[in-house]
Design goal:
Layout (H helix, E strand, L loop, with lengths): L1 H11 L15 H6 L2 E5 L2 H11 L3 E5 L14 H9 L2 E4 L9 H9 L4 E3 L27 H18 L4 H27 L7 E6 L3 H7 L2 E6 L9 H14 L3 E5 L5 H12 L5 E6 L14 H15 L8 H8 L1
Helix pairs in contact: 1-5, 3-6, 3-7, 6-7, 7-11, 9-10
Protein backbone atom coordinates (compact mmCIF):
# COMPACT_ATOMS: atom_id res chain seq x y z
CA UNK A 1 0.00 0.00 0.00
CA UNK A 2 2.91 2.36 0.82
CA UNK A 3 4.48 1.73 -2.58
CA UNK A 4 1.14 2.40 -4.24
CA UNK A 5 0.79 5.75 -2.47
CA UNK A 6 4.36 6.60 -3.41
CA UNK A 7 3.56 6.18 -7.08
CA UNK A 8 0.61 8.55 -6.98
CA UNK A 9 2.25 11.03 -4.60
CA UNK A 10 5.17 11.43 -7.00
CA UNK A 11 2.73 12.05 -9.82
CA UNK A 12 0.34 14.64 -8.39
CA UNK A 13 1.54 15.41 -4.84
CA UNK A 14 -2.01 15.16 -3.55
CA UNK A 15 -2.11 12.20 -1.18
CA UNK A 16 -2.08 12.55 2.57
CA UNK A 17 0.14 10.14 4.46
CA UNK A 18 -2.99 8.94 6.23
CA UNK A 19 -4.00 7.11 3.07
CA UNK A 20 -1.10 4.74 3.67
CA UNK A 21 -2.67 2.77 6.48
CA UNK A 22 -1.16 -0.51 7.57
CA UNK A 23 -2.78 -3.80 6.67
CA UNK A 24 -4.84 -5.59 9.28
CA UNK A 25 -5.48 -9.27 9.67
CA UNK A 26 -8.86 -9.97 8.08
CA UNK A 27 -10.39 -13.34 7.40
CA UNK A 28 -9.85 -14.08 3.68
CA UNK A 29 -13.28 -15.72 3.22
CA UNK A 30 -14.86 -12.54 4.57
CA UNK A 31 -12.91 -10.43 2.08
CA UNK A 32 -14.03 -12.57 -0.85
CA UNK A 33 -17.67 -12.14 0.15
CA UNK A 34 -17.42 -8.34 0.17
CA UNK A 35 -18.49 -6.29 -2.82
CA UNK A 36 -15.66 -4.94 -4.87
CA UNK A 37 -15.28 -1.22 -5.42
CA UNK A 38 -15.17 -0.02 -9.03
CA UNK A 39 -14.05 3.49 -9.98
CA UNK A 40 -14.94 4.90 -13.41
CA UNK A 41 -13.89 8.09 -15.14
CA UNK A 42 -16.75 9.60 -17.19
CA UNK A 43 -20.46 9.22 -16.61
CA UNK A 44 -21.06 7.06 -19.69
CA UNK A 45 -18.78 4.37 -18.24
CA UNK A 46 -20.18 4.79 -14.74
CA UNK A 47 -23.74 4.28 -15.90
CA UNK A 48 -22.89 1.27 -18.05
CA UNK A 49 -20.84 -0.33 -15.27
CA UNK A 50 -23.68 0.16 -12.79
CA UNK A 51 -26.02 -1.69 -15.14
CA UNK A 52 -23.54 -4.57 -15.39
CA UNK A 53 -22.52 -4.66 -11.73
CA UNK A 54 -25.99 -4.51 -10.22
CA UNK A 55 -25.82 -5.10 -6.47
CA UNK A 56 -22.67 -7.19 -6.74
CA UNK A 57 -20.29 -4.20 -6.63
CA UNK A 58 -20.05 -0.58 -5.62
CA UNK A 59 -19.54 1.79 -8.56
CA UNK A 60 -18.06 5.27 -8.15
CA UNK A 61 -17.88 7.85 -10.93
CA UNK A 62 -15.25 10.58 -10.87
CA UNK A 63 -16.57 13.03 -13.49
CA UNK A 64 -20.14 14.26 -13.23
CA UNK A 65 -22.51 16.29 -15.38
CA UNK A 66 -21.13 19.25 -17.29
CA UNK A 67 -17.50 18.24 -16.76
CA UNK A 68 -15.17 18.29 -19.77
CA UNK A 69 -12.88 15.23 -19.49
CA UNK A 70 -10.40 16.71 -21.98
CA UNK A 71 -9.53 19.50 -19.54
CA UNK A 72 -10.26 17.93 -16.15
CA UNK A 73 -7.45 17.72 -13.59
CA UNK A 74 -7.67 15.01 -10.90
CA UNK A 75 -8.30 16.23 -7.37
CA UNK A 76 -7.00 14.84 -4.10
CA UNK A 77 -10.33 13.04 -3.61
CA UNK A 78 -10.11 11.53 -7.09
CA UNK A 79 -6.68 10.10 -6.36
CA UNK A 80 -7.89 8.77 -3.03
CA UNK A 81 -10.78 7.00 -4.77
CA UNK A 82 -8.39 5.49 -7.31
CA UNK A 83 -6.12 4.25 -4.54
CA UNK A 84 -9.01 2.55 -2.76
CA UNK A 85 -10.48 0.95 -5.90
CA UNK A 86 -10.40 -2.76 -6.61
CA UNK A 87 -10.68 -2.09 -10.35
CA UNK A 88 -10.70 1.06 -12.50
CA UNK A 89 -12.28 1.77 -15.90
CA UNK A 90 -11.67 4.76 -18.15
CA UNK A 91 -12.28 5.48 -21.85
CA UNK A 92 -8.68 5.78 -22.99
CA UNK A 93 -7.56 7.08 -26.41
CA UNK A 94 -6.49 10.23 -24.54
CA UNK A 95 -10.07 11.34 -23.78
CA UNK A 96 -9.13 11.92 -20.13
CA UNK A 97 -6.01 13.80 -21.21
CA UNK A 98 -4.84 15.25 -17.91
CA UNK A 99 -5.90 12.19 -15.90
CA UNK A 100 -4.19 9.60 -18.07
CA UNK A 101 -0.92 9.64 -16.13
CA UNK A 102 -2.82 8.98 -12.91
CA UNK A 103 -4.57 5.95 -14.42
CA UNK A 104 -1.27 4.61 -15.76
CA UNK A 105 0.52 5.03 -12.44
CA UNK A 106 -2.30 3.42 -10.46
CA UNK A 107 -2.17 0.48 -12.85
CA UNK A 108 1.58 0.13 -12.43
CA UNK A 109 1.13 0.05 -8.68
CA UNK A 110 -0.99 -3.09 -8.85
CA UNK A 111 -4.62 -2.03 -9.25
CA UNK A 112 -6.32 -3.46 -12.35
CA UNK A 113 -6.91 -0.45 -14.64
CA UNK A 114 -8.63 -0.87 -18.00
CA UNK A 115 -9.40 1.47 -20.88
CA UNK A 116 -12.82 0.26 -22.02
CA UNK A 117 -11.88 0.87 -25.66
CA UNK A 118 -9.01 -1.61 -25.41
CA UNK A 119 -10.58 -4.33 -27.56
CA UNK A 120 -11.98 -2.13 -30.33
CA UNK A 121 -10.44 -2.80 -33.71
CA UNK A 122 -7.96 -0.27 -35.08
CA UNK A 123 -9.89 -0.53 -38.34
CA UNK A 124 -12.91 0.90 -36.54
CA UNK A 125 -11.17 3.76 -34.75
CA UNK A 126 -11.11 7.14 -36.47
CA UNK A 127 -8.09 9.35 -36.99
CA UNK A 128 -9.55 12.79 -37.78
CA UNK A 129 -7.91 15.11 -40.26
CA UNK A 130 -5.45 17.36 -38.49
CA UNK A 131 -5.07 14.89 -35.60
CA UNK A 132 -2.90 12.28 -37.28
CA UNK A 133 -1.57 9.80 -34.75
CA UNK A 134 -4.45 10.45 -32.32
CA UNK A 135 -7.56 8.28 -32.35
CA UNK A 136 -10.94 9.93 -31.85
CA UNK A 137 -11.98 8.80 -28.33
CA UNK A 138 -15.75 9.52 -28.61
CA UNK A 139 -16.64 5.91 -29.40
CA UNK A 140 -19.84 5.91 -27.28
CA UNK A 141 -21.50 7.90 -30.09
CA UNK A 142 -21.75 4.59 -31.98
CA UNK A 143 -24.07 2.46 -29.83
CA UNK A 144 -22.80 -0.82 -31.28
CA UNK A 145 -19.23 0.12 -30.39
CA UNK A 146 -20.31 1.02 -26.86
CA UNK A 147 -21.94 -2.39 -26.56
CA UNK A 148 -18.55 -3.94 -27.32
CA UNK A 149 -17.08 -1.85 -24.51
CA UNK A 150 -19.80 -3.17 -22.19
CA UNK A 151 -18.80 -6.73 -23.03
CA UNK A 152 -15.16 -5.92 -22.21
CA UNK A 153 -16.13 -4.42 -18.85
CA UNK A 154 -18.03 -7.61 -18.09
CA UNK A 155 -15.05 -9.79 -19.01
CA UNK A 156 -12.79 -7.76 -16.71
CA UNK A 157 -15.23 -7.92 -13.82
CA UNK A 158 -15.68 -11.67 -14.19
CA UNK A 159 -11.91 -12.11 -14.16
CA UNK A 160 -11.36 -10.10 -10.98
CA UNK A 161 -14.59 -11.03 -9.19
CA UNK A 162 -15.39 -14.60 -10.29
CA UNK A 163 -17.83 -15.16 -7.41
CA UNK A 164 -20.30 -12.81 -9.12
CA UNK A 165 -19.46 -13.82 -12.69
CA UNK A 166 -22.90 -15.25 -13.47
CA UNK A 167 -24.60 -12.03 -12.44
CA UNK A 168 -22.24 -9.93 -14.55
CA UNK A 169 -22.89 -12.18 -17.55
CA UNK A 170 -26.68 -12.08 -17.33
CA UNK A 171 -26.91 -8.33 -16.75
CA UNK A 172 -24.49 -7.65 -19.60
CA UNK A 173 -26.60 -9.73 -21.97
CA UNK A 174 -29.71 -7.76 -21.04
CA UNK A 175 -27.97 -4.41 -21.38
CA UNK A 176 -26.40 -5.28 -24.73
CA UNK A 177 -29.87 -6.26 -26.02
CA UNK A 178 -31.17 -2.84 -24.94
CA UNK A 179 -28.32 -1.18 -26.83
CA UNK A 180 -29.10 -3.25 -29.92
CA UNK A 181 -32.68 -1.95 -29.84
CA UNK A 182 -31.46 1.61 -29.25
CA UNK A 183 -29.18 1.34 -32.28
CA UNK A 184 -32.15 0.32 -34.43
CA UNK A 185 -34.20 3.23 -33.08
CA UNK A 186 -31.48 5.75 -33.91
CA UNK A 187 -31.30 4.46 -37.48
CA UNK A 188 -35.05 4.95 -37.70
CA UNK A 189 -34.89 8.54 -36.40
CA UNK A 190 -32.13 9.61 -38.78
CA UNK A 191 -33.99 8.03 -41.71
CA UNK A 192 -36.81 10.55 -41.17
CA UNK A 193 -34.48 13.55 -41.69
CA UNK A 194 -34.55 14.80 -45.31
CA UNK A 195 -31.37 13.54 -46.93
CA UNK A 196 -30.18 17.00 -47.93
CA UNK A 197 -30.46 18.11 -44.28
CA UNK A 198 -28.37 15.35 -42.71
CA UNK A 199 -25.58 17.68 -41.65
CA UNK A 200 -24.66 18.05 -37.99
CA UNK A 201 -22.75 21.16 -36.89
CA UNK A 202 -21.48 21.23 -33.29
CA UNK A 203 -19.01 22.99 -31.02
CA UNK A 204 -16.31 20.30 -31.14
CA UNK A 205 -15.74 17.19 -33.19
CA UNK A 206 -17.31 14.60 -30.89
CA UNK A 207 -19.86 13.11 -33.27
CA UNK A 208 -17.69 11.43 -35.91
CA UNK A 209 -18.61 7.88 -34.88
CA UNK A 210 -22.27 8.85 -34.73
CA UNK A 211 -22.12 10.26 -38.25
CA UNK A 212 -20.37 7.18 -39.62
CA UNK A 213 -22.77 4.77 -37.93
CA UNK A 214 -26.05 6.54 -38.72
CA UNK A 215 -25.46 8.17 -42.08
CA UNK A 216 -24.84 11.84 -41.36
CA UNK A 217 -22.06 14.32 -42.05
CA UNK A 218 -20.55 16.43 -39.29
CA UNK A 219 -18.71 19.70 -38.96
CA UNK A 220 -17.35 21.36 -35.83
CA UNK A 221 -15.57 24.55 -34.82
CA UNK A 222 -13.00 22.72 -32.69
CA UNK A 223 -11.29 19.38 -33.18
CA UNK A 224 -11.67 16.15 -31.20
CA UNK A 225 -10.18 17.75 -28.08
CA UNK A 226 -11.43 20.97 -26.51
CA UNK A 227 -7.83 21.77 -25.62
CA UNK A 228 -7.46 22.95 -29.23
CA UNK A 229 -8.54 26.56 -29.76
CA UNK A 230 -10.76 27.59 -32.63
CA UNK A 231 -9.44 30.46 -34.74
CA UNK A 232 -11.04 32.98 -37.07
CA UNK A 233 -10.26 30.74 -40.03
CA UNK A 234 -12.13 27.84 -38.38
CA UNK A 235 -15.19 30.02 -37.79
CA UNK A 236 -15.15 31.40 -41.34
CA UNK A 237 -14.80 27.92 -42.84
CA UNK A 238 -17.82 26.74 -40.89
CA UNK A 239 -19.83 29.80 -41.93
CA UNK A 240 -19.03 29.00 -45.57
CA UNK A 241 -20.20 25.42 -45.07
CA UNK A 242 -23.49 26.45 -43.41
CA UNK A 243 -24.35 29.11 -45.98
CA UNK A 244 -23.44 26.90 -48.95
CA UNK A 245 -25.58 24.02 -47.67
CA UNK A 246 -28.35 26.32 -46.35
CA UNK A 247 -28.37 24.55 -42.98
CA UNK A 248 -31.21 25.62 -40.65
CA UNK A 249 -29.70 24.70 -37.28
CA UNK A 250 -26.48 24.11 -35.37
CA UNK A 251 -26.06 22.59 -31.92
CA UNK A 252 -24.40 23.62 -28.67
CA UNK A 253 -22.90 21.11 -26.22
CA UNK A 254 -23.44 20.85 -22.48
CA UNK A 255 -19.73 20.88 -21.58
CA UNK A 256 -18.55 23.63 -23.94
CA UNK A 257 -19.11 27.39 -23.99
CA UNK A 258 -21.17 28.50 -26.99
CA UNK A 259 -19.14 31.62 -27.89
CA UNK A 260 -17.67 30.04 -31.04
CA UNK A 261 -21.06 28.94 -32.32
CA UNK A 262 -22.49 32.38 -31.59
CA UNK A 263 -19.74 33.78 -33.80
CA UNK A 264 -20.75 31.32 -36.51
CA UNK A 265 -24.39 32.42 -36.29
CA UNK A 266 -23.36 36.07 -36.55
CA UNK A 267 -21.10 35.30 -39.51
CA UNK A 268 -23.91 33.51 -41.34
CA UNK A 269 -26.32 36.36 -40.62
CA UNK A 270 -23.82 38.84 -42.09
CA UNK A 271 -24.05 36.83 -45.31
CA UNK A 272 -27.83 36.84 -45.32
CA UNK A 273 -28.43 33.35 -43.94
CA UNK A 274 -30.33 32.81 -40.69
CA UNK A 275 -29.28 29.78 -38.68
CA UNK A 276 -30.64 28.90 -35.23
CA UNK A 277 -29.52 26.88 -32.23
CA UNK A 278 -31.22 23.53 -32.73
CA UNK A 279 -30.75 22.48 -29.12
CA UNK A 280 -28.17 21.36 -26.57
CA UNK A 281 -26.43 18.02 -27.03
CA UNK A 282 -24.58 15.89 -24.51
CA UNK A 283 -21.17 15.01 -25.88
CA UNK A 284 -18.47 14.37 -23.24
CA UNK A 285 -20.81 14.20 -20.25
CA UNK A 286 -24.39 13.10 -19.58
CA UNK A 287 -27.31 14.97 -18.04
CA UNK A 288 -28.12 15.52 -14.37
CA UNK A 289 -28.00 12.47 -12.07
CA UNK A 290 -31.43 10.99 -11.50
CA UNK A 291 -32.78 12.14 -14.88
CA UNK A 292 -33.29 10.04 -18.00
CA UNK A 293 -30.63 12.12 -19.76
CA UNK A 294 -28.32 11.22 -16.88
CA UNK A 295 -28.13 7.67 -18.26
CA UNK A 296 -26.24 6.60 -21.35
CA UNK A 297 -29.36 5.43 -23.17
CA UNK A 298 -31.24 8.59 -22.20
CA UNK A 299 -28.33 10.80 -23.24
CA UNK A 300 -28.09 9.22 -26.69
CA UNK A 301 -31.85 9.25 -27.25
CA UNK A 302 -32.01 12.93 -26.25
CA UNK A 303 -29.20 13.80 -28.66
CA UNK A 304 -30.63 12.08 -31.70
CA UNK A 305 -34.21 13.16 -31.02
CA UNK A 306 -33.00 16.78 -30.69
CA UNK A 307 -31.02 16.54 -33.93
CA UNK A 308 -33.90 14.86 -35.75
CA UNK A 309 -36.49 17.47 -34.77
CA UNK A 310 -34.23 20.44 -35.57
CA UNK A 311 -33.28 19.10 -39.01
CA UNK A 312 -36.82 18.36 -40.17
CA UNK A 313 -37.27 14.73 -39.16
CA UNK A 314 -39.96 13.22 -36.98
CA UNK A 315 -39.77 11.65 -33.52
CA UNK A 316 -42.41 9.21 -32.20
CA UNK A 317 -44.51 10.72 -29.42
CA UNK A 318 -43.53 8.09 -26.87
CA UNK A 319 -39.86 8.02 -27.84
CA UNK A 320 -37.64 4.97 -27.56
CA UNK A 321 -39.69 3.17 -24.89
CA UNK A 322 -42.91 3.20 -26.92
CA UNK A 323 -41.09 2.41 -30.14
CA UNK A 324 -39.67 -0.77 -28.55
CA UNK A 325 -43.15 -1.94 -27.58
CA UNK A 326 -44.38 -1.64 -31.15
CA UNK A 327 -41.45 -3.38 -32.79
Amino acid sequence: MTNKCGFILSLVSLIFMTSCSSETNVDQDSIREQSIQIVCSVGMITDMTEKIAGEDAEVIGLLGEGVDPHLYKPTRDDIQQLLEADIVFYVGLMLEGRMTDAFVQVGRSGTPVYPVTETLSKDFLMEPEGFEGHWDPHVWMDVNAWAECAKWISVCLQKHDPIHAAGYQSRTAMYVEQLKQLDQYLHFLVSTIPEQSRYLVTAHDAFGYFAEAYGMKVKAVQGISTESEAGIADVNELVDFIVTNELPSIFVESTIADKNLRAVIEGAAARGHQVTIGGELFSDAMGEPGTYEGTYIGMVEHNVATITKALGGSVPLGGFSDWKKNE
